[in-house]
Amino acid sequence: MSCRHRFYDKLIPEWPIKYLFIGTFNPEWNSGNDAAYFYGRPQNRFWEIMPIALNFESQIKNRSNPEVLELFLKKNKIGLTDLIVEVTNADYKVASHRRALLSFKDDELFRFKCKFNENIFDLIDKNAVLLQQGGVFLTRKSTPKGSIGLFWQHIINFANIYGIRTASLISHLFESAKF
């Protein structure tokens, strides 16, 4: 058994990108707190903070509208993807596996085998000139550990070859902020 990414078919943006935001994993299993698109859960402030930080209008009102969000991303050369495309040893029938993956806590992923999104390297290579003007950013609460941390480090090293800026964005500091 396994658990694929909820947006498996959307993990590689098909448009030119200047800014690439990389999350960790969104399980396909339904939790009752499911997002319609990347960063779409109600408590996530990404669609409010990211556009404002890049001098665009907040997209928080569109958080549940994938079509509008994709148009915004395309128009502004922003790409979204995740590090993990599938957790290969997770079983929905095992309650502890469901609890771990549906908690949306990255630290719960360390106990599972993950299939990583190797297409990120092609995405960076294809968009290197634009990404040199923007950057590649990991959106998570802390520095990744274990194999997830190693994969992120490979992405940093690859981006550095092209002179592309990378950073980990600690979005949890903004969860209670009012804009």
Tell me what you see in this structure.
This protein is α/β, with parallel strands linked by helices and 179 residues long. It has one domain. Helices cover 30% and strands 16% of the residues. It is built from six helices and seven strands; from the N terminus they run ββααββαβααβαβ. The protein has helices spanning 46-53, 66-75, 95-102, 119-126, 128-131, 146-161; strands at 3-4, 19-23, 78-82, 84-87, 114-116, 135-139, 166-169. Strands 3-2-6-7 form a four-stranded parallel β-sheet. A three-stranded antiparallel β-sheet has the order 1-4-5, covered by helices on one side. The longest helix has 16 residues, at 146-161. It is globular and about 45 Å long.
Features:
179 residues, disordered C terminus, four-stranded parallel sheet, alpha/beta, 7 strands
Topology:
Layout: E1 3-4, E2 19-23, H1 46-53, H2 66-75, E3 78-82, E4 84-87, H3 95-102, E5 114-116, H4 119-126, H5 128-131, E6 135-139, H6 146-161, E7 166-169
Parallel strand pairs: 2-3, 2-6, 6-7
Antiparallel strand pairs: 1-4, 4-5
Overall pLDDT score: 89
Helix content: 25-40%
Strand order of the largest sheet: 3-2-6-7
Shape call = globular
Total number of domains:
1
How far apart lie the N and C ends? Answer: 42 Å
Give, in order, the helices and strands. EEHHEEHEHHEHE
What Rg do the Cα atoms give? 16 Å
Derived from helix and strand composition plus strand pairing, the structural class reads: alpha/beta
Strand content: 15-25%
Indicate the low-confidence ranges by residue numbers: 172-179
Instruction: Enumerate how many helices there are, as a single number.
Output: 6
Main pleated-sheet profile: 4 strands, parallel
Per DSSP E runs of 2 or more residues, the count of β-strands stands at: 7
